[in-house]
């Protein structure tokens, strides 16, 4: 099946929706699994809403997710003359016609049909018009085949059939000579040699209309596959009101590309009970037999768990490099050393890069403020205990984690209190909050001078 050619055709009228990213991923995996080609087309014919910024963002997100394309991206607006020529040629062949009905006339007919409780369909009034009338700007309509049935053998949905009588004479070229979406998509897919059109199932009705254009042009009809949409937890189509809806949102929220890819793959496709699936496995296993026909529900908790898994899997240096754009200041060599030394413990507690960025602050400088929860461990008794901890740290030539723990345990025993009482006071002093990895690990990483400075600052703050 090496002849397979699929395409992803986003519109740069907005940011790339996470559902569109899944469509791109499914296309890409299908192509890679079959040694085929994955093509990219930017559908920018809506000049009022399309932006260069959105086009650039599409490229960046696909590269971030390592969804690479095999040929130069096609820019749809460059093909408008070709689209127009196809429409005019269909008129010459008698398969399309000029329509001079005004928008007002059509609106009145539509309103009349609705009042009568009927669905509106263009009545074919101008079907016999094959000549242009001077001084008038017609649209070009396709002469739809309205007899018999059309069946699509869909890769996901199975066989879907409609009565051709439902088809109307769709507009191919508007009165300002701009091509419609229906025409542009078909012409571009044909010219790009697309063999399989894989997209959201909200396009299923479009498919029957586009098949009519393929037939009128005597072109090979590609195979179609329509993937169910992604819904939010409430069963409504996933949107901004569910939180993040664009791929850029998830990137900025601190999700790794490998986690996003793995999660989207499992959102509507399965391979047994496998949850964590590598890119190599995905390419090897992907097919449409295991794509579900029902909508998927986005589960943020599952995404977070996958992200936490991939954060733990990442090499610490790679993870730090990924984190750097999220940090508010550049790291010096000593800060990098501390973060890398503490990374194994820190990443065990984080589910996103943003959480990890918050966690590494303990190694980027002394606390700027102390969390209100620290007050519980800032009593005169706790501050006296911290004085004794300072003495212990001062007395040690080497800040060995286990040796520190043993000495502070002994201090707690001598005072008849639990180790956690002293540990929490130390944690508040070092971190400004009461959640962190082992305080003895933190002391060993920070070193004597910084540890003593933070302990003394804490005591001074609460004594005042």
Observed structural traits:
single chain, 464 residues, mainly alpha, three-stranded parallel sheet, three-stranded antiparallel sheet
Rg result: 32 Å
How do the helices and strands follow one another from N- to C-terminus?
Answer: EHEHEHEHEEEEHEHEEHHHEHHHHHHHHH
Query: What's the number of helices?
Result: 18
Biggest beta sheet summary = 3 strands, parallel
Strand fraction: 5-15%
Helix content: 40-55%
Describe what this molecule looks like in 3D.
The chain is mainly alpha-helical. It is built from 18 helices and twelve strands. The chain has a three-stranded parallel β-sheet. Strands 4-5-8 form a three-stranded antiparallel β-sheet. The protein has a two-stranded antiparallel ribbon with strand order 6-7. Strand 2 (37-42), helix 2 (52-64) and strand 3 form a beta-alpha-beta unit. The longest helix has 16 residues, at 18-33.
